[in-house]
Design a protein that fits this description.
The protein has helices at residues 6-23, 31-41, 43-65, 71-91, 97-120, 132-149, 153-162, 167-191, 197-223, 226-246. It is mostly helical. It has one domain (6-246). The longest helix is centred in the C-terminal third of the chain and has 27 residues, at 197-223. The radius of gyration is 17 Å and the shape is globular.
Length: 247
Amino acid sequence: MPDFNATQWTLAVIAALGMGISKGGLSGVGLLHVVIFAFLFGARDSTGVVLPMLLVGDVCAVTVLHQHARWDYVKRMLLPSCIGVIAGWLLMGRITDAGFRLVVGWIILTLAVLQFARMLRPHWFGDVPHNRWFAWAMGLLLGVTTMLANAAGPIFGLYALSVSLPKFEIVGTGAWLFFIVNAVKVPFSAGLGLIHRQTLLFNLLMTPVIIVGVLCGRWLTHRLPQRLFDGFLLAFAAIAALRLIVS
């Protein structure tokens, strides 16, 4: 169990709550836990600390939102995402945290700007999001990003917006996709020594907070209009990108 002071424990609880809210529907909020846990445990070690907690949130999300999943989009993204996980695993230790954050930040920011442009001018790039190469590109980026930083929520959110999925289908589809991809990541993270007894004890302590967060996220998603929901996803993605770029 980490030797945290009161402030650090408070930050940990806030991060776990934000993680649950993101799994319950507001995926962009998930970047909050990336920043906080990287601060508390270090960027690399935090990936192993966070992964079992993400799986707890995934199980909760799948349980309450499974009926909204679009399996055609899960299947479209799954293979490239798993290949991206392997690529991220190979890259761990070969790329600096600063370099990775800069690249991913600019990619997410560019995608957010393009999606905002499409919301203003729907005919722009109209066919691109439905092409197979676009799904593969986004899936590979999602896999690499989630393996290296557990920060792929905005990437899936932007992809889902680009193919015009309704908000509940975005949440249900993302729940199943991330549940499978995060499960695939476990042996890779364990093999790197990032998951061990002490991290699992911390995960167990944070589990009730995550569950509360999922329920809060589901409540919020039900009450946000579609256009406002889309705006939140774009805003969170842009803020997350800027945070990665300037950190």
